[in-house]
TrEMBL record:
Organism: Tenacibaculum holothuriorum
Cofactor: Zn(2+)
InterPro entries named among the record's database cross-references: Aminopeptidase_N-like_N, Aminopeptidase_N-like_N_sf, ARM-like, ARM-type_fold, Peptidase_M1, Peptidase_M1_aminopeptidases, Peptidase_M1_dom, Peptidase_M4/M1_CTD_sf
GO cellular component, one term: extracellular space
GO biological process, any: proteolysis
Catalyzed reactions per annotation: Release of an N-terminal amino acid, Xaa-|-Yaa- from a peptide, amide or arylamide. Xaa is preferably Ala, but may be most amino acids including Pro (slow action). When a terminal hydrophobic residue is followed by a prolyl residue, the two may be released as an intact Xaa-Pro dipeptide
PANTHER family attached to this UniProt entry: PROTEASE M1 ZINC METALLOPROTEASE, PUROMYCIN-SENSITIVE AMINOPEPTIDASE-RELATED
Family recorded in the similarity comment: Belongs to the peptidase M1 family.
Protein's name in the database: Aminopeptidase N
Gene3D superfamilies assigned to the protein according to its UniProt record, in alphabetical order: Leucine-rich Repeat Variant, Neutral Protease Domain 2, tricorn interacting facor f3 domain
Keywords: Aminopeptidase, Hydrolase, Metal-binding, Metalloprotease, Protease, Signal, Zinc
Amino acid sequence: MKFQKTLTFFITLFTVALFAQTSTYRAERDKIHDLIHTKLKVDFNFKEKQLNGEEWVTLKPHFYKTDKLTLDAKGMIIHKVLMNNSPLNYNYDGNELIINLPRAYKRNEEFTIYIKYTARPEKVKQKGSAAITSAKGLYFINSTGLDKNKPTQIWTQGETEASSCWFPTIDAPNQKTSQEIYITVPKKYVTLSNGKLEKQTNNANGTRTDYWNFIQKHAPYLFFMGVGEYEIIKDTYKNIPVEYYVEKKYAPYARDIFGNTPEMLAFFSKITGIEYPWNKYAQIVGRDYVSGAMENTTAVIHGEKAYQMPGQLIDENVQENTIAHEAFHHWFGDLVTTESWSNLTVNESFANYSEYLWLEHKYGKDVADAHLFEDTQAYKNGQNYDKHLVRFNYQDKEDMFDAVSYNKGGAILHMLRNYLGDEAFFEGLKQYLTKHKYGTAEAHQLRLVLEEVTGKDLNWFFNQWYFGSGHPKLDISYDYNTLRKTVTVNIIQTQAKEFKFPLAIDIFEGSKATRHNVFVNGKDASFTFPYVKQPSLIQVNADGVLLCDVHENKVLSDYINQLKYAKNYQHQREALLEVAKNQDDKKAFNAIANAMSDPFYKIRILALENINLINKYSKKRVIDKIKQIAMNDPKTLVQAAAIETLGKLTDPELKPVFDKGLQSKSYSVLGKSLVGMYYVDKDLAIKKSKTLPLEVKKIIATPLTRIYLEENDDSELTFIGGNVMSGMFLSQNKKIQSLYKKAFDKISKSNNTEAIKNLSDDIVAKGIQYKQYNFDKVGVNLMRQMVQMQKKANPINKNKNIEVIKTAMARLLE
């Protein structure tokens, strides 16, 4: 499962209470019975959003003999329960199906139960999580076909325990079962499920039955069905089918979006030492999907964010990390599964770290390190310091899907890899996967395998990082002995809990760095190093591996040297932001200007975003340099940042730069160029914006909104209205939030009924989508504000507009 990162700000606002811990102990679920095989036959009632199902489930007692079977079955109608064609007595409370078996079955005695049922996902009452925004298991999208702008689709989402919303099962991660599914649908639809499509049968009533067979074992939460009008783009990894299910519009771009998948499977097979263990790899995109993506075995589903046009992909494939994340889950999570949600780290921390591994392999260490830094910052910025990675005490299993299980867990694996060395680390992963394949495991079993491989005791590491909370907070100082030519680095841990850890310290003499690897084993540690020439920079945590906070009293000259010489992204970034505060100093300004030529594109972007061109050191040569970057940098995102910086000058001489940008294939460059051009040739910018296709306008909505608001172009309020809520609440950029708050106010006061309807519909859609964050209540309050603004500002069309708002509000209050 992959987080929707755009929800981070939103979650911070509305779900702090979601993560509250209690003293409730959450153990692995007791195994009374073991699932062996699950066979399903299903068809769908699109109008009622229901599934008609038949199930043959084969089980055996785990150890103790028993004459009762309990299955999870949420919100269903149970029509009959049989064994060998004979009815069985049962009790059903809408959540659990308790079946009286004809006799007591002993350990290893298999039996098969037949159940005829109707699944009613709309009747399910269980909440989602920060990662998975709903938990009804089975989703009908535009099932009546009334929305002409949205296709009809069906898809499932099983994690954590929602597969039991569409078939009775033992819905726990410590169960493993093989499966067969017969899916009957109208002929115009294609289907996707786990395993192999063995057979398709056309039926006399205009339907078709697809038979999917999955002969290996996996957890019930990984069962998947997808139904819709898709084109299937075929690829391969070795002799294994790799397929991309996309809507027709995106078929020409499917390989651009997903085409690295075969290389990912090859890379992950190589580093784990375990060849991809399944018989296919398919990916499908679902409308209105409730998360970022999900690793259903051989049948991954992605949210709509995966859909990108060429003008976006030329900038960056924003789904690539997610594609890697879900692929690696096929080893960590699907092949070897957490035995309990408390040990979710053995699934999600590995999938999170796979993003680093893939980026390092494909694009280099700088890109991977920047990604790791951004992930750890997201962990630090949340309500996470006091949470353990392995948590046996939590309020709800959904609470485990947070920045600790994902982001911090990935950072911990990076530290573990660094401590053990690559050869030992990856050999340990191979042994862990081999030992527990098609089964379950917990963090201790990972530790034991790594200890066996390396001969090292790792209790200290796991106790502080897996079974403890927080991270080191280091206060750093230096003592120089100029007679002996030594420097002593003093490290004091200021947090309550004491950590021990390896640490890299670089001593720079000019541009030359000497790396010292030390081990900190105490709250107060000091290390003395010789030097030949007075050090120009001392960099603690020089490789950026240790998850920590560092406080040290550096002066401007230190930061200038750090920006120039440091090797790790986080240190360069830190230095650049500090130096940028002091650009009245010529050396500081030149350091920022030089950083615009840094080999790593994210440092170039950061320099362009922070350079101050309104000071006495802003020479023509620097502006000329930015012009060259704007037109020629190999990264379009850097070009866009340069154009945005030049746009602040509102200089008519820059018109050729903006004009070239308007011809760019990059939507990022196009959007920034439109804004830049607006301030030097308003008519040209507006004319260009009016000729853009609607799909492009939606992608670059923010720069267009800025232009239309400044222009007071009320004819575009209808377009703006459909984008307001994402800008106000799903962006972490305060300038963007402010821009869309201005748009909200303007539309709310206007007499543009169409714009008011678009804004109201957007509020309703977001209120429903994020209801578990109480955004439905936020939406109602926003619409009440709209009503008040209408009463004050628009007496002419007031009644009509207020009726539109109140009608939308009623939908949200249903």
